[in-house]
Input
Amino acid sequence: MTTTTTRQTQSMGLPILSSQGQGWEHILVEQFQHPPGEGNCHYNEHAICLSLASRPVRLLQIKGGKTYSGLYGKGDMSIMPAAMPVFARWEGDDHYLQIRIRSQFLQTVAQETIASHHSVELIPEFRIRDRQVEAIGMMLLSEVQQNNPGSKLYIESLTNVLAVHLLRQYAATQPRLPVYEGGIPARQLEQVLDFINEHLDQKIKLADLAALLDMSQFHFSHLFKQSTGIAPYQYLLQQRVERAKQLLKQTDQPIIEIAFQCGFNSHSHLSKQFRQLTGMTPTDYRAH
Output
């Protein structure tokens, strides 16, 4: 995700980890650690700051004409709507995760899921707790740490879930999201599964799968899980490992070649996912 962020800071520095350059669309995830300091910033994206601090940090925030001062402990978070100037001062060593999500993407999700063409506005929030955002944030952080190019479908799924959650919980005007039951009709599901099977060696995007059925990504993910019992990214991973199992038994190709043919970016990436699903390494499986 490339950004056009305006930032003027004192002591805010560079992130210690960032998804920048990993090919993520619509979302930027960065981990920061700062000594005591203060700074001004505003972003063109909606921003979520989730505290990772081992000890609570006293924080002053001024945004949207409101001032907040209090202790931020691990799991506390704040929301900064796009283009809202923020001043912050922190009195201890700060450690937090920042998630920035494109305002245009959030608008698109609103249009796709609730057919709303009104401009989406988020409410600025100070110290709040939200277990779902925290869980998504930690899963995204784990992906940043692993720098795994093969997890694009997983990142897109998490980004969509986060966007819908923000619309449901923090939009200035609360939308009514329709509920779809019954899953995907058998013939359409077969079309999707065939597409996945034929493109296992390629990067498969959630948008590609949803477009096959002319659905929003959110609705597609929801209905796919109703039909199969698992999320699209989980199904894709299962099928890649199944293809690898076939090639390991039926050919003598090097494991690195099998990894590429099954959509994994390295021997170690295949080995990790293979072990998680089968309990053994590709080498052990081939010899078994």
Summary: The chain has three domains: 6-170, 186-233, 243-287. The radius of gyration is 21 Å. The longest strand covers residues 27-34.
